[in-house]
Design brief:
Layout: H1 9-12, E1 26-27, H2 36-43, E2 64-67, E3 71-75, E4 81-84, H3 86-96, H4 103-106, E5 108-109, E6 117-118, E7 124-132, H5 134-142, H6 154-167, E8 176-183, E9 188-197, E10 199-205, H7 208-211, H8 215-218, E11 230-236, E12 250-251, E13 260-261, E14 270-275, H9 286-317, H10 319-348, H11 351-369, H12 372-403, H13 412-424, H14 427-444, H15 451-468, H16 477-484, H17 489-499, H18 505-513, H19 517-522, H20 524-546, H21 550-565, E15 579-584, E16 599-601, H22 602-608, H23 620-627, E17 642-647, E18 659-661, E19 667-674, E20 692-696, H24 697-707, H25 711-715, E21 719-720
Parallel strand pairs: 13-21
Antiparallel strand pairs: 1-15, 2-3, 2-7, 3-4, 4-11, 5-10, 6-10, 7-9, 8-9, 10-11, 11-12, 14-15, 14-18, 16-17, 17-20, 18-19, 19-20
Helix pairs in contact: 3-10, 9-10, 9-11, 9-12, 9-15, 11-12, 12-15, 12-20, 12-21, 13-14, 15-17
């Protein structure tokens, strides 16, 4: 085992004020050590930083949580009312929608608590406690309990998290779980105590013509006029503890909720965002940036564009399909366009040149330090990239085609278990395997799946995959297409979707009347799924072998960069843990002769209206409110209705729904997007171009009260004029 290098990050990466105030998704638990308070106050922070985060008291941190699987939400009333983005709540809105109750099109407004809709599967998570466990991990490495390479692994970290919970005073607290994660590429480790609430109810959602106004066209673009919000509520048992849905549950009396400001904002005003940014890669080398461009982004763009073309046509032709695939399409489209914009921005913002310059500086630093490990590490990473690039490209094409693209297919293990049970002729095992098969069939053929739409997707993606990868990356069913169907993809797919056991309920029931090993062995769906699984495992094994030492190389490189840049601190990459970012309200100039001001108004919605384009339809009631200037107390001093605004905050995916707060910690907006010109920001932050796009809280409240008619929700909030 390599000798462990213990980095005192508290001294090197965390003890000095930053040179660029706006860059950095900062760890709350390191704010004091990093002396962020002085810089934040210089930017305009008026509140005590101890009221943002303090492990011994209730702070702003306690009003922010994880909404669903990948967004942020904030508590905006004493009774657990959650504000997040419309696109974050989209799955839930779609789940509750039908042709008869089309909440996607019409919106949803609960006028009282009894109308709030339970949403199975939706959760809201609070961070209860954060503990530094770096010394614990390093001691385990020194004692030989785990190798340095294994210390990054889920197995070790999950076991460590479970052990720490057993020793904690929170071990018997309802809803508590623990999560241990590496930071600074394994130079630091933290343990998070999470409290999860699982009774979350839908409260309010504007029509998609408001909550998704601009659609794909405006996504990642400025100027923006999208009122991207939805509202939910946390319910708990009578003691305030997490509980599964029950009619006896009550709205959670929260520890902390955000005060809402209607005082408005001006250019230069302080803005801070707290949330859960998903993933950044600021420490990549030049070769790794190229790897991202060519082996991740290009395959993702190619496959998703092909699939979306099919879905777009099918959704336009049927309201039923439109509702079924609304959330799937939105999720796919978002990072399809992001990948396009990222590759474009990497070139235009000269990210590769910036990385090359950093590596040249690092080489000089390593030489001056006479540090052989630092001198070699970039070359070792480049060697890794050369080996992994073709594998990563094929793995991306595979996952985008067969895991994210085509939905149909059985899990081969389900049929394997049934086959084994039939061979043993064990009645109970057969019954158990049959039950599992029925359950899986129901999971595939769910209410949001259309077999004919998926067939059309398969007819596009299966040939596309064969065109883009090497013969070695083709699952065995491609040989079946060649030998048994004369290379006719459509004929094979029709046979798969028509005749296999998994194709429809009639076929399944016919098989279950007389299940045999022979029927399983010759079934196309079983062969299709089995060959997919084997190929995926083969690709993962090859990638794992090629990546054996990459975590340790990154650990060395990041440690060296922190030393090189000292005394300027560096924030760790985002990993969907709670972070703070601060900056200012600010306009920007993307190109020569173009100036974008820092806010938009409802006037822009009316200017963009296009009744023939579903992305730019404006509801009649909103037009009426605009025409009569019925904006209430939410208007600007000049009488206009604010819509969205820009800040310099450093955010990424996962920050969607995050609260944007002023210098007093009061809510002024809800973050929902970044700008097109800086989509390389996850890799390299550009202080001049990077902007966060937020919906103005005044626009949100205007829609809730004037269009949704939910004065009941306004009345439960704490609002300062």
């Amino acid at each position: 085992m390599k000798k462990l290098k213990v980095l005192a990050l508290a001294l090197i990466c965390a003890a000095f004020s930053p040179a660029k105030a706006d860059e950095g998704m900062w760890l709350l638990q390191l704010m004091q050590e990093q002396n962020l308070a002085d810089r934040m106050k210089a930017q305009g922070l008026k509140m005590d930083v101890a009221n943002i985060y303090n492990p011994s008291q209730i702070t702003l941190k306690d009003a922010v949580g994880i909404f669903g699987r990948g967004c942020t939400g904030e508590i905006i009333s004493p009774d657990g009312l959650i504000l997040t983005n419309h696109h974050c709540g989209y799955d839930a809105i779609q789940q509750h929608s039908s042709v008869e109750h089309d909440y996607l099109t019409d919106g949803f407004w609960a006028k009282n608590r009894s109308e709030e809709l339970p949403t199975p599967g939706l959760t809201f998570k609070f961070v209860e406690r954060i503990v530094d466990i770096t010394d614990k991990v390093n001691n385990d490495i020194k004692k030989g309990k785990v190798t340095e390479a294994e210390s990054f692994g889920k197995k070790y970290l999950n076991e460590l998290a479970a052990d720490e919970l057993k020793k904690s005073d929170l071990k018997k607290a309802p809803g508590i779980s623990t999560l241990a994660l590496p930071f600074y590429e394994g130079n630091k480790f933290y343990l998070f105590y999470i409290k999860t609430y699982s009774d979350i109810r839908m409260v309010a959602a504007p029509p998609s013509s408001i909550g998704k106004f601009g659609g794909e066209t405006d996504n990642w673009m400025w100027p923006r006029h999208t009122c991207d919000f939805s509202m939910f509520r946390v319910y708990a048992d009578k003691n305030g503890n997490p509980a599964e849905y029950s009619k006896d549950n009550v709205p959670l009396k929260v520890k902390k909720h955000l005060t809402i400001s209607l005082k408005g904002l001006q250019e230069g005003d302080y803005a801070m965002i707290m949330g859960f940014p998903g993933s950044t890669s600021r420490y990549l080398t030049e070769s790794e940036v190229k790897l991202r461009m060519e082996s991740t982004n290009v395959p993702r763009i190619t496959v998703r564009e092909a699939r979306q073309n099919v879905l777009r046509a099918e959704m336009a032709a049927s309201d039923k399909v439109r509702i079924q695939y609304a959330s799937k399409f939105a999720g796919s489209s978002n990072y399809w366009k992001n990948s396009i914009g990222m590759n474009k921005a990497i070139v235009e913002n000269k990210v590769l040149e910036t990385k090359a310059a950093q590596e040249a500086k690092f080489a000089e630093f390593a030489k001056a330090q006479n540090n052989e490990e630092y001198a070699k590490v970039v070359g070792q990473i480049d060697e890794y990239v050369a080996n992994i690039a073709p594998l990563r490209k094929e793995a991306t094409y595979f996952s985008e085609t067969f895991m994210s693209g085509i939905e149909f297919g059985a899990t081969y293990r389900t049929f394997a278990n049934l086959k084994t049970a039939l061979e043993k002729n064990k009645k109970k095992e057969i019954e158990k395997a049959v039950a599992a098969l029925k359950e899986e069939f129901a999971e595939v053929h769910n209410k949001d799946y259309d077999h004919e739409v998926d067939r059309k997707v398969a007819k596009v993606l299966i040939p596309l995959y064969a065109e883009k990868v090497s013969a070695e990356a083709l699952p065995a069913f491609y040989e079946t297409i060649k030998t048994q169907f004369n290379g006719d993809y459509n004929a094979y797919i029709d046979a798969l979707y028509n005749n296999s056991i998994f194709a429809n309920e009639k076929n399944l029931n016919a098989f279950l009347e007389n299940p045999t090993v022979e029927a399983i062995d010759k079934d196309l769906a079983v062969a299709y799924s089995t060959s997919k699984s084997k190929m995926y495992q083969s690709l993962m094994d090859k990638i794992s072998a090629a990546s054996e030492n990459i975590n340790l190389l990154h650990k060395t490189y990041v440690r060296g960069l922190c030393e090189m840049y000292a005394p300027t601190p560096k924030a760790p990459d985002a990993n969907f843990t709670i972070r703070l970012t601060y900056g200012n309200v600010k306009s920007y100039d993307p190109k020569d002769g173009i100036h974008y001001k820092y806010y938009t108004t409802l006037k822009g919605v009316m200017e963009k209206e296009d009744p023939n384009n579903p992305e730019f339809v404006v509801p009649a009631k909103l037009k009426e409110l605009y025409a009569t200037k019925n904006f209430g107390r939410y208007a600007l001093p000049n009488g206009e209705m604010p819509a969205c605004f820009l800040t310099t905050n450093d955010i990424t995916g996962g920050n969607s729904g995050s609260p944007v707060m002023n210098g007093n910690g009061e809510l002024i907006g809800c973050a929902f997007d970044g700008n097109w010109e800086s989509l390389s920001g996850d890799i390299n932050f550009d202080n001049n171009l990077q902007r966060c796009i937020a919906v103005d809280i005044r626009y949100v409240l205007f829609i809730v009260e004037k269009l949704g008619g939910c004065k009941n929700l306004i009345d439960e909030m704490t609002i300062v004029e």
